[in-house]
Amino acid sequence: MCPFISYHLSPEYSKLLTIDTGPRLGLSGTPERAGDPVGTQLIFDYFQGIVPPPFTLQEAIPDVLTPYFYYVHTVSLSTDEQEEWTSIAKKISRLYAQSKHAQQTGALDPSRIKLLLIQRARIVKSAHEKIAKTIAIMTANYKSGQRWILYCDTVVQVQQIVSGLRTSGLPAVEYHSSMVGDRDQTIRIFESNGGILVSIHCLDEGVDIPAVTHALILASSKNPREFIQRRGRVLRKAKGKHVSYVHDLLVLPIQTDEPDPNLSIIETEISRAIEFGSWAQNPSSIIELERIALKFGMDYTSLTDGGFEDDND
User: What string of pLDDT tens digits covers the 313 residues of the chain?
Assistant: First the structure.
């Protein structure tokens, strides 16, 4: 993330934090605003910090959430995707180098860097190899009656996955804001009969499906808020549900002798994956992440504090 750019609470939302309500309490599983230290501090000042002790995921299992297994799968960028990613990364690096001077002179345009970050992240999220890999994972793992959520990046990706799964004889349906049909009815049928729900951001908030047992993440922001919500979607307890399964599809660059910027793909992908693997029931997931880092000559321990870049559009 560029050290000279932050994304703040809007002026309208900021006004809410000036209301004198007297004693107040805010409830949130994700109180920190990713990429917005100023907005986070405004919220913390208004609510006077977090009531100790914080209730973490580790403490929520198994009393509130189910234990879970975490599985890492990998795909590679194509040659064309790698070239496009590297080209955009070089443009971002040039703008970063210029940004300190631009900030001092008042000529900095944060929107240019943000747009390039979104474009670069989109290449990884929509890597073409993810389609075939998803079909293979689901063909090998799906059992009748299970309830899977597949998180995609775009409607096009959703439709490609649904088409491929149906061709393979698997019961897949799409779920997004522009879908044809009744979304509520789709959820009811899914809860009752099971199947594979292929979605984008619609399921991040506001939809409660505790019977979900499996999740496959094809695309995810590095924003902690998103992966906390998605993990929580599949870990909720339900009658007869004792354990959950999270599958994560990571994208690797084409291995070359070149230094950065290519290796930053691994940094952001593994940093996100550590969030899922840290408290999983199978320690092999972390071993796999260490193996990937070692393959590309990276220090795994340095990635555990990896941040994120604002890649949401």
Answer: 343 344 456 677 777 788 888 888 887 766 776 567 777 788 888 888 887 766 666 777 878 889 999 999 999 999 999 999 889 988 888 887 776 665 555 555 667 888 888 898 899 889 999 999 999 999 999 999 999 999 998 899 999 999 999 999 999 999 988 888 888 899 899 989 999 999 986 554 556 788 899 999 997 666 656 666 777 778 888 888 999 999 999 988 886 555 555 566 777 777 767 767 878 899 888 888 888 888 877 776 766 554 444 445 4
- Point out which residues pair with 150 in neighbouring strands: 198, 216
pTM of the entire structure?
0.78
Residue 174, SS3?
strand
For residue 48 the two structure tokens come to 């006077």
> Which residues are 72's β-sheet partners?
248
Q: How far is CA 217 from the centre of its chain?
A: 8
Output DSSP code: residue 201. G
**DSSP H/E element including 120:** helix 110-125
d(CA 121, CA 92) in angstroms, rounded, equals 12
Nearest C-alpha neighbor of 138 from the set 155, 102, 111, 163:
163
**Amino acid residing at 186:** T
Q: How far apart are CA 108 and CA 103, in angstroms?
A: 5
What is the C-alpha to C-alpha distance for residues 262 and 186, in angstroms, rounded to an integer?
A: 41
Domains along the sequence of the chain with CATH? 11-54 (no CATH), 64-78+125-303 (3.40.50.300)
Cα 91 to chain centroid, rounded: 24
DSSP secondary structure of 251-286: EEPPP-S--TTTTHHHHHHHHHHHHHHTT-S-THHH
